[in-house]
Amino acid sequence: MTGRLEELLEEKKNRQDAERARGVDERDAWIRSVSALLDNIINWLKPLQTKGYLKINRRQSAVREQAFGDYTIDRLTIEFVDGQLVELQPVGRYVLGADGRVDLTAGPRTIMIVRKEKDTWELAEREGRMKPKTWSLNRETFEALLADIVEET
Asked: How many structural domains are present in the chain?
């Protein structure tokens, strides 16, 4: 049977296969981007970990996204000397207003780490119903954020 129906179905299948392959590539790029972000954070905090002021635990976590389905990605838990926890959990690649998001939670407080461009990250925090306050993510701003969190308790 080689007719118009078969040709149409073959075209659709080829398009789906190409989209699926692009999705896998994009998912893998997202996973690498988050891994690089977490590597930076670990390196920034390594001197404090060496002094015994905090512990860093990196492990895999399951995420489900409509575009990618189920996949695993790294997450971090930072435990301070007093037992206070800060968790960094990837939310997903497809989020409104960004190219991906990782949530930093400390107790009831959540700060979003959003990817604005390829491997450019910002911190964003909602204050009421207003547009989130944003600032660039680097070693100094991350350490200042953690200092605020430690001071709050």
From this structure: 1
Residue 61 and residue 38 in contact, taking contact as beta carbons nearer than 8 Å: no
Query: Cα(14)–Cα(3) distance, rounded to whole angstroms?
Result: 17
Parent domain of 120? 4-152
What pLDDT digit, counting tens, does each position of 66-125 carry?
888 889 999 999 999 999 999 999 999 988 888 899 999 999 999 999 999 777 999 999
User: By CB neighbour count within 10 A (0-12 exposed, 13-18 middle, 19+ buried), where does 119 fall?
Assistant: middle
76 near 20, Cβ under 8 Å?
no
Closest CA to 105 of 146, 72, 65, 74: 146
State how far the Cα of 51 lies from the Cα of 46, in Å rounded to an integer: 9
d(CA 148, CA 14): 52
* Residues sharing a CB contact under 8 Å with residue 71, sequence separation 6 or more, in sequence order: 27, 31, 62, 63, 65
> Token digits for 70?
């189920």
Cβ atoms of 89 and 61 closer than 8 Å: yes
Q: What is the pTM of this model?
A: 0.84
The closest alpha carbon to 27, from 59, 69, 55, belongs to 69
